[in-house]
Amino acid sequence: MTELKLDKSEYDASYDLSKTMFRLVGLRLTHNDPPLARLLWNAFYLFEAMNVLLAMFLELIRMKQTARDGSFIELFTMMPCVGYLLLCAVKSYKILYYRPVYENLINELRDMWPQDAVTKEEYDIVRLALVRLRRNIKGYYFCTLALFILLSAPPFTGMIKQAMGQEVRLTLAFSYWFPFDPFIRGRFEVIAVVQTWHCFLALGFMLPTDALFWVFLSHITTQFDLLAIRLKKMFYVPLDEQLIKEYPLAQYSLECDTDNVEYNNNDELVKIHQKKLVDIILKHRALIRMSGVVENQFTFSLLINFINSSIIICFCGFCCMFVEKWNEITYKFFLTTATLQIWLVCWYGQKLLDSSQGIADAVYFSGWYNVPHRVKSFLIIIFYRAQKEVYVTTYGFSVISIESYSTILKTSWSYLMLLVNVFQK
After folding, report:
1. Cβ pair 239, 253 in contact under 8 A
2. Which run of H or of E encompasses 5?
3. What is the SS3 assignment for 406?
4. CA-CA distance, 198 to 50, in Å (whole number)?
5. How far is residue 381's CA from residue 212's CA, in Å, rounded to a whole number?
6. Which of 165, 185, 296, 312 has the most beta carbons within 10 angstroms of its beta carbon?
7. Nearest-angstrom CA–CA distance, 2 and 121
8. Helices (H), 164-186
9. Which SS3 state, helix, strand or coil, does residue 234 take?
10. How far is residue 232's CA from residue 368's CA, in Å, rounded to a whole number?
């Protein structure tokens, strides 16, 4: 049986993008900073968070003025940005306030990383999870980077065209309220730079918190899958006319780690399996507890995320239909990024549901019927606990899964059609 080795550096690398982006906005994870350095980093974070809140406050004032003037089209174009800023503030706050909880979760999952040689099947499960995680995070990263460029580019392209002698009207990237004329030369350039910085901060708060959630669920679900493989391969069942070698149970039985030894009052083998099952029970309980930690830390921000995503998708769809020209792509890309973000959240939520249920399936599909009662009692404990799904919710309102993704799209479509009907009338 082929055995391979997994390097812990691959586990650490899965957090690299989140840690790098967090440092840019003043948050540091898994760093033992001295008190003064931590105070300075926290002050840096509060300074940048206040700038994000300032941007949201200025846009809200402008929205109020716009609604009072009856310019509803302009009001609809401002909705996605305000919702995005609100979500950034909510998501980043818990990272700072509960930093030790996140660090402890990272370290616990690192300790669970396979240290001994693993089989090819286990190796493939881990490698596939890591490849998929890197692909998803990088895809979301490049979508977010492209969105940042599209949102912040208009003021600078206008200035470049004016410098080249073209008659163009200068526009700001975002609709802030100002107590003065922002289009006076000198002021305009400063405001354009500040708004670009605010846009970067908003995306810098959003991207690493989403990535951290996906990393946590990816590693937890991978550990569930590895436990399922261990259970399937734990018990040897002799091949006969009913269990032929082509059956999956027969294949797992041939790969059993007890060298095809049958029980036959073998007390030593019973003790070995009892010890292994105790280890599985403890790991299973630890994974359930860690899933609960993820639930506690992300559940409120996920509720805001789901509500906000429905609104963002709705208003971005409206802007794509009635505001933006066919050859303009800013709101189309905003819509794509928002849809991708909520899809990945729901996909990893579904993966947690499926992998936690896979433990019960692994017990059922193992050779449980060929073991003594003393071993079956341990399997019953695992089986009954694994039948209760492990999941993450939106503050208890709904379970995060592919079904909830479908609900968000249906809700957004309903809002959009209502908005279109009102607008056309």
Report:
1. yes
2. none
3. helix
4. 10
5. 32
6. 312
7. 9
8. none
9. coil
10. 9
**How many Cβ atoms from other residues are within 10 Å of residue 265's Cβ?**
7
CA angle 140, 202, 336 (to 5 degrees): 35
Give, in degrees to the nearest 5, the angle at Cα 109 between 133 and 10. Answer: 50
Do 171 and 195 form a contact (C-beta atoms < 8 A)? no
| Per-residue tokens: 50 | 């206040």
In this structure, what DSSP letter does residue 262 have? -
> For residue 369, what is the DSSP state?
G
* 8 A C-beta contact, residue 340 and residue 232: no
| Cα 304 to Cα 310: distance, rounded to the nearest angstrom | 10
Identify whether the C-beta of residue 317 lies closer than 8 Å to the C-beta of residue 416: yes
Q: Positive or negative CA dihedral for 26, 310, 394, 140?
A: negative
pLDDT in tens, the chain (425 residues): 556 778 888 888 888 888 888 888 888 887 777 888 888 888 888 898 888 889 889 988 988 888 888 777 777 777 777 777 877 877 777 787 888 899 899 999 999 998 877 888 889 999 999 999 999 999 999 988 888 898 888 899 999 988 888 888 888 888 898 988 898 888 999 999 999 999 888 888 888 899 999 999 999 999 999 999 988 888 877 776 667 766 777 677 766 755 555 555 567 888 888 898 999 999 999 999 999 999 999 998 888 889 888 888 888 888 888 888 866 788 888 888 889 999 999 999 999 999 999 999 999 888 888 888 888 899 999 999 998 889 999 988 899 999 999 999 999 999 889 888 887 76
Are residues 356 and 383 in contact, defined by beta-carbon separation less than 8 angstroms?
no
Residue 216 CA to residue 355 CA, distance in Å, equals 14
CA 29 to chain centre: 17
Query: Tokens 């906005």 sit at which residue?
Result: 25
- Distance between CA 420 and CA 218 in Å, rounded? 39
- Model's pTM, two decimal places? 0.91
Identify the burial level of 396 via C-beta atoms within 10 angstroms of its C-beta, where 0-12 means exposed, 13-18 middle and 19 or more buried.
exposed
3-state helix, strand, coil in the chain (%, to 5): 75, 0, 25
Pairing type for strands 118-119 and 3-4 reads antiparallel
CB under 8 Å to 190, separation ≥6 — which residues? Answer: none
CA R_g for the chain: 27
Neighbours of 217 (CB within 10 A): 25
DSSP 370: G
User: How far, in Å, CA of 83 to CA of 410, rounded?
Assistant: 19
